[in-house]
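Regression test attached.
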Amino acid sequence: MERNTRQRNAILGAISSAGRPLSTQEVLAAGQAVVPSLSIATVYRTLKDLTTEGWILPVKLPGESDRYEVTTLGEHYHFKCSSCSKVFDVHERIKNSNLPAPPNFVVEKYDLILYGRCSNCIPKRKGQKPSAAKYPF
Amino acid sequence: MERNTRQRNAILGAISSAGRPLSTQEVLAAGQAVVPSLSIATVYRTLKDLTTEGWILPVKLPGESDRYEVTTLGEHYHFKCSSCSKVFDVHERIKNSNLPAPPNFVVEKYDLILYGRCSNCIPKRKGQKPSAAKYPF
DNA sequence: TCGCTAATGATAACTTATTATCAATAAAGG
DNA sequence: CCTTTATTGATAATAAGTTATCATTAGCGA
C-alpha cells in the first residue's frame, strides 16, 4: 500500500468495527455505505493486501468461502448462526486438558466451530419475531 | 442403484476399509487398484449415489474439498496431519460441560478439528525417516 | 494547482471442483 | 447365450469464487 484511499479506509474500517468476521459480500456492502462506488474487485484486491500486510486474517469454515477479521483478537473460536448465517467470535476458552487426541498423535493446534442460534435469532416470547440484528449486514 | 457393478463395489469397499475419510482422488486411486479403468466421473457419480442412499457421508474441513467416510462411525472428530495431509477419525470425546459459548447463544452442534502430526509422521529416533504409512494412500 | 502514477471500477478471464453428455460397455433376467 | 438398458469412461460444460486487464480516476508530493 502506498496511498491512503477512501476505499481502503472503508474496507479496513468495516472489518475493524464489525466485531465479527465478514464475508467479501458483507465487506462490499459495508464499504459501499461509505464509498458507494466501491467495486468487488477493489474489495478482493484490498483484502489480499491487508492480509499480506498483517492487518486482517481469513477465517475459514467448512464448506464456506473466506471471511475476514482483524489480527488483534488473540486465540478464539467461531460460532455460526444457522438462522441468519452470521459468524461470531467466541472468546471463552476450552480447557486444553480436555482435548481428545489419538494415541501417538501430536496435536499442534485445533479449531472449534460452534453451530446454533445467535441471541438475535432466538425468539424472546412465543409468537414474537426475532429482533432486528445488532449489525448492519 | 440397480446394478451391482465392480466400480461401485470397489468405491464403497475402499471407503469402508480405509479407516479414515478419503478424498475423491484417494477414492479414485484406491478404486483403480481394483478396477484399473475406473474414471473420476464414476467416482463422483457413485459418491453422490452412496451419499443419497445413506452409506457414506461427506467430511468437510475448512478450506478443503469434501472427503467421504461410512455413516456407521457415530459421533467423532477429525485430525488432519500437517505433514502427510491425511485426515484421521478421533473417537475420544470432549466433555460437553467444557464447551465455550457466548451469553444468550444456543449451541446445537459443534465441530472439533485437530491439526498436528500423525503417528506415521513423527520420527521415531533422531535422524530416522518417518516409517511407511499404514494406509495405502 | 499540477503532474505523476498508484488505485479504482467494470468486466473478462481464470481456477478448481463438480456435473452433464453420449457412445460404448457390461450387469442381470430369460 | 441373448437382449435390454443401467452404468461406465472420456471429456465437454458448468458454477462459484477469485484474479487479471486496462482505461479512467484520484492521492499526494512539488
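Expected vs. actual: identical. Residues 2-6, 24, 40-41, 44-45, 48, 65-66 of chain A lie near DNA strand D (CB under 10 Å from a C1').
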